[in-house]
## 1
Amino acid sequence: MDAYRRHVLVCTGSFCSPNRQGRLLYSQLAALLQREDLLFGPDRVKRSEAPCLGVCGGGPIIAVYPEGIWYGGVTPELLERIVVEHLRDGRIIDEAVFHRLGG
């Protein structure tokens, strides 16, 4: 497996997001990563879907590692901001963060 700079986990389960919006976001994430040239090379972002991240509310939930930043209530618009501002440009979207691992 190629090395990657960040790993994005998308909750696709139905507990935190009853309408299963996480599945749509997971699909959209692939297209956004490709558009921003983040699928290959030194800035590669790996994406994974998770059936449950253990929050069970406030979803869809997206977690970004290695920073340990968890975003809640993610919409397609917010996902685009996460990809461009956080994953591409390295700026965490503070107003959308609901949990920081270790802090």
## 2
Amino acid sequence: MVAQYDKRRRLIVKGLNEIGLPCFEPHGAFYAFPSIHHSGMTSNEFSKRLLKEERVAVIPGNAFGQCGEGFIRCSYVASLENIEEALERMGRFVRRHG
């Protein structure tokens, strides 16, 4: 199980960085916390629009305090296939609103 979550973690971090959402590799959690600063949107706006336009749910970073603004939280407790699909949809969203 540890190996499976490691694979998911590496997939989501690599994918987020490739689509232009800078992300450090998390250690000890099941969440990635990429930056959305370049989008010009607040974390609430980005999260709501991503859900509405691409049907991908993330948590706005400001839900974790003022320092979380400009970030989103992405869970990787999902199948590899679902993570890949979410990354594809997020990539479309980022390209549209880049």
## 3
Amino acid sequence: MLTTLGIDDGDLDAAGLMEEVGIVLSYCGVGLVMMLLGFLLIDLLTPGRLRDLIWTERNYNASVLVTTGFVAQGLIVVAAIWASNDDFGEGLITTSAYSIVGLIVSTLVFFVVDLMTPSNLRRDMVHAEPHPASWVVGTLRIVVSGIIALAIL
């Protein structure tokens, strides 16, 4: 993995280790920021506060939507890191850019599915009763992100 990031792990000294740790932490930071942005987008798309829906009201549908969103976004981040070239700075930029593309496409998928459903998908995704559509939307988001991830590689 370190060789993929442009680091020769054959001669690892203390300074090299610290550099590698910094690179790993930087990519983790980008990944976590993208996960947070994904959470905020879902929060904007659905009625109510997502944080309260999941942790206070224990809403099943909102949990499925957020969980599958994290998996979907994570696929893109992992693929973007794997495909990043030897230039660390450029790798962070491309990882961020591909991740943002994933967030945009995921949002568009949500809107398209909402238009195609006979009810209000936004409301259904936070309804108190479990709704099978939460798994349909979540799975679709994972598959679309898998397509994006494969295109990155």
## 4
Amino acid sequence: MEVNAIEIQNVCKTYGKVEAVTDLSFTVKKSHCFGLLGPNGAGKSTTMKMLYAKAKRNCGNINILGFDPSKNELEIKYISGIVPQDDNLDTELTVVQNLIIYSKFYGMEKKEALKKIDYLLDFMELKEKSNSTIRQLSGGMKRRLVIARALINSPQLLILDEPTTGLDPQVRHLIWDKIRMLKKEGVTIVLTTHYMEEAFQICDDLIMMNKGKKVLQGRPQELITSNIEKFVLEIINVDSFQSINIEESIIRKEASGNRVYLYSNQLIALEDLSKKLNTGDFYLRQSNLEDVFLKMTGRGLNE
């Protein structure tokens, strides 16, 4: 029987008159990776902060591996690893020195800490940079070091706030592989991300949030299957679309800026339409998690 690592029930959070999170409920199973997706201002980071007691909820219940953040802040921090959005490393110190200082927060003996640091630098492929200062590291190296730092206390729960934003594809895929390895070792992972492909690749379950509320929850592939048509004809040149008639009973249309999106479960219907367009004016593909996300949260900016 699978056991929940996190249980969130009817949680809300307000800042003055602003409702950052409203009546939010979800559970996260142990050794699973759980994703929070949503546009800016959806309430993702506020939710994450409530998990490790940086923000206090106004209502509802939160259980983190048997602890309540409002009562057991230190206990939760002791069994958790936090990777914030910003790489808040000490730039004047070396890679190893940064990790040694962090190990002291958990009362680790120096011998034990050095052994763990050696393992983590090897795990995150940073061993050759052990004695480099932070200023000498690339953006991807800094991000991997922040993740290594979050693992210094062998956490049961790892919280990742946009872990791969701004990183090149090679580093992103490396971090995905490490997250998969951590799951196999029994670590529960909660992350926020703006990369739909990232959520699809590594999340066992996820929720989509918009304006502080949960709008959808499920496994990535199931969300695609249940909430969007199988195929989409993405028309880049709107002018080439104006004279084309579509059969609305089998094709759903969305428009955004200078693009038109035609969704359908019938591939042949979209293929027939594409033949009426100029080469380079369209892109015919399978629907993905980003299509679901935009359908549920809208294509406009959420300021």
